[in-house]
Amino acid sequence: MLRAAGVGIGDEVIVPAFGNVEVAEAVIQAGAMPVFADIDPATYCLDAAEVNAAVGPRTVAVVAVHRFGRPADITRLRDVGQRHGLLVLEQGESEAPYDEIEERRAHAAYLDGRLRGVRTPVRGIGHTYQQYVVRVPGNGRPDRDAFARAVRAKGVECRVPVKTPVHRMPVFRRDVCLPETERAADETLALPVDASLSKRQMQRMVSACNALGGLLQPAF
Question: Quick check: pTM over 0.85?
Fold first, then answer.
């Protein structure tokens, strides 16, 4: 898409650093330079205000990535694009059949109402819960990683969705301040909400998380 739009050498393209190293790689392959902007902490997608602040004289495009089944705020991003004459591209996520999405939403609603000690996802229109991503409060990554090990030991599958932000990877390393991206990388944990999960499995997940989550308090 970048090449078809005429993006090339000397151009800059604004992309998120929270996950999807392939997006930054695609910009490089097109001959352009990726510029990283911070995310909205509620959606984990590009924050339109941060994109606006990152626009420079060589910026020609923005790539919005929809994250964890939660769509980016394309309306606001397109407003920024129109203001600066930028192309706004979208990278979507592969989706499941409608019935499976509805089951994931039901599981997400169950967890929303019962989990304690972790911050549950912010609800939003169109959220399909491709991943159910919570935040583990505390002092950042050590608490999140300890929490993950503990719930895995109780038979609950979980995964860290983004281990290293792209702007911290050696090949893309940039001296840029992205506080929400850094915080999300340190605190987030994806819990399963697959349609195949039984009620008993969901209850076990809640019990395992609640037994630990209340012990972790936000750092001040």
Answer: yes
